[in-house]
Automatic annotation (TrEMBL):
Keywords, comma-separated and alphabetical: Acetylation, ATP-binding, Ligase, Magnesium, Metal-binding, Nucleotide-binding
Positions of the Acetyl-coenzyme A synthetase N-terminal domain: 27-82
Span of domain AMP-dependent synthetase/ligase: 84-470
Organism in which the protein naturally occurs: Hydrogenimonas thermophila
Gene name of this polypeptide: acsA
Name of this chain's protein: Acetyl-coenzyme A synthetase
Residues that, per the record, bind ATP: G387, E388, P389, D411, T412, W413, W414, Q415, T416, D504, R519, R530
Length: 653
């Protein structure tokens, strides 16, 4: 595959002067240091960045690979790292700036954060008996109490599992059951586009069946709409919180104790509970904030993600607070009340670093191309993107109209499993090529290789692998260590040793720049939301008329990919029904089983699926048909080659 050469944008000189990593020589020194003395490199940073209660005795334990252990024997507390250690120098600094959907605002200083988190932790401990190792599920809107709840769990050593508020009751239930949660923390609801929406009723439905481990539900009242209160199960945070003391001793945690679970989609089966550990995670969350966003003491940093995703965990809550930054938390959507909302907020808070997803950039570009001109965006220094490939036109608009041609764009590639950034430009050092994640961060051995570890030729696509363990990596899949091994260490090897394979393909060019080409497995990425086609298929199969289904991603101008489903109905009669009506029903089933985010944009009834003689569905053919492409691959190996033309006529006709 040959690529035309991309233009190169050099870092802004003025910015680079004060950046933590100022040029490519400094970058290279760090890279070389990590290559020459991997453990020395990581040990140095762990000692320098973390306030240890007790020092670690070993940097990396590889004896039970791939169940790696980092900073063995060290004792710490992540909430202490994020709050207490800042009090001496930053107690009156804004830790969180909250902006609600309807324009309501709150500024929470580090001292207030300390008190709020301590009270929250005391409430969990005293009222609900939460202790080290217990699992707590959070089903929360974007309000400061969500961050308090995460940090309160960390303070007590309880393991939180945040479930994105867009997931359905069924999806929430699956996650509660898998984690065997003792407590669910939720809110009555919150506001979106000026109107209240509800969360607690979803929790009520989730808890109707099978969640035997859940003892209590704690409800934060945000929109004060009417909800059902179940006696002796449901408790109001607002009524109880002021009864608690505002100091709470942090639990002494081991480096490798689990910090949180976050469920994510894989190519097969049910979502996986990605388990992260304490020390390695917080170290890298903090270091990447410093290196990749280069946040300075007086800066205001805004990441628009939701705390239900890893980006919200690492880059709204843990990373910014660990480094003592001011982090903005926003409840609403950037297009309400108009497509200038985000830029208005940049002007108002003098945001210095802004981090969002390509889908949001495309929407804001399309719906409010000239909105940025109305606001003063001169405070911006670094712009970030994450979650999906960004296309060159969106990149250009972001660079020119939002960044005024003076801000670096850091296109950060990483995953729920990696905990923090892996491949990304450094804003003061890396000459940037548009829509390109550029180089691995120092200490991260990201390589584009073949399955056997051979490096790919420039311009060829290969597997994006991380060939050495790194501190913030996934430790296991909750309750399923075998699946962990198989999912991540089963596909690629280097020097005969299994290495972490991300599931993404990438191209490395002649200058060594890495461009992510997207998933090579059956995971699709819709508006930066990662979804397993197998999960969506399992949901669709619950519709009584569906016999078989195959789901693929179809390129979409705004969302990156859209969900395209081919369904085969149970009997011939059914196929004469109204397709639009059936599609509506199928989407209702998906909403119920997973949530609105997984709904299909296109549902086509077809007479059969293209299968090989061994019964494997040839998804490549289905992807090509969805795109309207000519079928180039050999279809003679199909059980019924004539099915391809039939499917094509269903899709076109
Ligand atoms: O396919 C890659 C894509 O998002 C996937 C990870 O999804 P998730 O675990 O939900 O985490 C998203 C936020 C980190 C990856 O396997 N992805 C992430 N960042 C990029 C990306 N694709 C292209 N460019 C990126 N910068």
């Amino acid at each position: 595959m040959s690529e035309e050469r991309k233009p190169i944008f050099k870092p802004n000189r003025e910015f680079a002067k004060n950046a933590r990593i100022k040029n490519m020589c400094e970058y290279q020194e760090l890279v070389d240091w990590a290559k020459e003395d991997y453990e020395g490199f990581w040990g140095h940073w762990a000692k320098e960045k973390i306030n240890w209660f007790e020092p670690f005795t070993q940097v990396l334990d590889e004896s039970n690979a791939p169940f790696y252990k980092w900073f063995v024997g060290g004792k710490l507390n992540v909430s202490y790292q994020c709050i207490d250690r800042h009090l001496e120098v930053r107690k009156n600094k804004a830790a969180i700036i909250f902006e609600g959907d309807r324009g309501d605002k709150q500024i929470i200083t580090y001292l207030e954060l300390y008190r709020n988190v301590s009270r929250f932790a005391n409430l969990l401990k005293n009222r609900f008996g939460i202790k080290k190792g217990d699992r707590v599920v959070l089903y929360m809107p974007m309000i400061p109490e969500a961050a308090y709840a995460m940090l309160a769990c960390a303070r007590l050593g309880a393991i939180h599992s945040v479930v994105f508020g867009g997931f359905s009751a069924e999806a929430l239930r699956d996650r509660i059951i898998d984690a065997e949660a003792k407590l669910v923390i939720t809110a009555d609801g919150a506001y979106r586009k000026g109107k209240p929406y509800m969360l607690k009723p979803v929790v009520d439905i989730a808890l109707e069946e099978g969640c035997d481990t859940v003892e209590k539900v704690l409800v934060v009242q945000r929109n004060h709409e009417d909800i059902t209160w179940i006696e002796r199960r449901d408790y109001s945070y607002n009524e109880l919180i002021d009864l608690e003391a505002d100091t709470c001793e942090p639990e002494v945690m081991d480096s490798e104790d689990p910090l949180f679970l976050l469920y994510t989609s894989g190519s097969t089966g049910k979502p996986k509970g990605v388990q992260h550990a304490q020390a390695g995670y917080i170290l890298w969350a903090q270091m990447t904030m410093e290196w990749v966003f280069d946040v300075k003491e007086n800066d205001t940093y805004w990441c628009t993600a939701d705390i239900g995703w890893i980006t919200g965990h690492t880059y709204i809550v843990y990373g910014p607070l660990a480094m003592g930054a001011t982090t903005v938390m926003f409840e609403g959507v950037p297009t309400y009340p108009d497509a200038g909302r985000a830029w208005k907020m940049v002007e108002e808070y003098k945001i210095n670093q802004f981090y969002t997803a390509p889908t949001a950039i495309r929407v804001l570009h399309k719906t409010g191309e000239h909105e940025p001109e109305k606001y003063d965006l001169s405070s911006l220094k670094v712009l970030g993107t994450v979650g999906e490939p960004i296309d060159p036109p969106a990149w250009k608009w972001y660079y020119e109209k939002i960044g005024g041609g003076r801000c670096a764009i850091v296109d950060t590639w990483w995953q729920t499993e990696t905990g923090g950034h892996m491949v990304s430009p450094l804003p003061g050092a890396t000459p940037i090529k548009p829509a390109c994640a550029t180089f691995p961060l120092p200490g991260i051995m990201a390589e584009v290789i073949e399955r056997d570890g051979t490096p790919v030729e420039p311009g060829e696509q290969g597997l994006l692998c991380i060939t050495k363990p790194w501190p913030s990596m996934i430790r296991t899949i909750w309750g399923d260590p075998e699946r962990f091994k198989k999912s991540y260490f089963g596909d690629a090897k280097k020097d005969g040793k299994p290495v972490y394979f991300s599931g993404d393909g990438a191209i490395i060019d002649e200058d060594g720049y890495i461009t992510i080409t997207g998933r090579v497995d059956d995971v699709i990425n819709v508006s930066g939301h990662r979804m397993g086609t197998a999960e969506i298929e399992a949901a669709i199969k619950k519709h009584p008329h569906v016999a078989e289904v195959a789901v693929v991603g179809k390129p979409d101008d705004i969302k990156g990919e859209s969900v395209f489903a081919y369904v085969v109905l149970k009997d011939v009669e059914d196929s004469f029904g109204e397709e639009a009506e059936l599609a509506k029903e199928i989407n209702q089933v998906i909403s119920k089983e997973i949530g609105n985010i997984a709904k299909c944009d296109t549902i086509k009834v077809v007479p059969g699926l293209p299968k090989t003689r061994s019964g494997k569905i040839m998804r490549r053919i289905l992807r090509a048909i969805a795109k309207g492409e000519e079928i180039k691959q050999d279809i003679s190996t199909l059980e019924d080659p004539s099915i391809v033309a039939k499917i094509q006529s269903c899709v076109i006709g």
